[in-house]
Amino acid sequence: MSNEKKKAIVLLSGGIDSATTLAIAIRDGYEPCAITFNYGQRHVSELDAAKRVAESMGVKRRFVADIDLRSIGGSALTDSIDVPKNRSHKHIVSGIPVTYVPARNTIFLSFALAWAEVLNAHDIFIGVTAIDYSGYPDCRPEFIKTFEELANVATREGVSGHHFTIHAPLIHMTKAEIIRSGFSLGVDYSLTHSCYDPLPDGLACGKCDSCHLRKKGFAEAEIVDPTIYAQ
After folding, report:
1. Lowest-confidence range among 9-13, 25-29, 132-136, 223-227?
2. What value does the CA radius of gyration of the chain take, rounded to a whole number of Å?
3. What local confidence, expressed as pLDDT, does residue 95 receive?
């Protein structure tokens, strides 16, 4: 019997959620192949974070996909639109904010699916959550279920009977639960980056929705947030 581990594609942005998802894939016995996206995001600091996280967890195969979503625009993360600051938690979790990137997770999962076919991997991990998040439609269970169905009718592997599974292990977890889970698995959150609008030196702004959710998550998890925020 072969002791070779099954490969899994893990979407790795360098944030709390994707770092925790990577740790879960490793815990579950997969050989992770990490895919990171350089899509023209203003918080390009997350690319360095993804590299640090991958190296810290011993990821041997990592692919950085270059996609120019800035040429499409339509989001505060890829266009000349101000990133919302100092919003209340009530406002953050209601409605779809301007930081939503049009069809981003559909695009990302499509790239991951293509790479999965090449690597003969049938498991894809993505760190989306439908709790304590900014209301993005492509973070919901309905989206994950539908994309999995698509993957199995739109690929050679799928129609040949080799089923793809899209794993979203965090989807029903709060940010605090995610942090506790990752902490128990040894994730070094000091290597991660969450801020949507970092200062030129890479320091987290401390005021955007993502910084707010990060602070709230660590506070509720009763774990010290290692991030240094701008004053």
Report:
1. 132-136
2. 17
3. 83
Q: pLDDT digit string (tens) for 184-215?
A: 999 999 999 999 999 988 899 999 999 999 99
Which residues on neighbouring strands pair with residue 63, listed in sequence order? 35
**64-90 burial string, b = 16+ CB within 10 Å, else e?**
eeeeebeebeebbbbbeeebbeebeee
DSSP state of 173: -
Residue 94 is which amino acid?
Answer: S
The b/e string for 159-172 (b: 16+ C-beta within 10 A; e otherwise) is: eeeeebebbbbbbe
**DSSP element (H, E) containing 150:** helix 141-151
Whether residue 71 contacts residue 97, with contact meaning beta carbons closer than 8 Å, is answered with: no
Closest alpha carbon to 166 in 125, 135, 128: 125
Domains parsed from the chain with CATH numbers: 7-221 (3.40.50.620)
Q: Letter for the amino acid at 185?
A: L
Q: Tell me: the pLDDT tens digits for 20-78?
A: 999 999 999 999 999 999 999 998 899 999 999 999 999 999 999 999 999 999 999 99
Start-to-end Cα distance in the chain:
57
- For residue 19, give the nearest of 230, 182, 168, 228 by alpha carbon: 182
Sheet containing strand 123-125, strands side by side: 61-66, 31-38, 7-11, 123-125, 165-167
Closest CA to 15 of 42, 40, 46, 38: 46
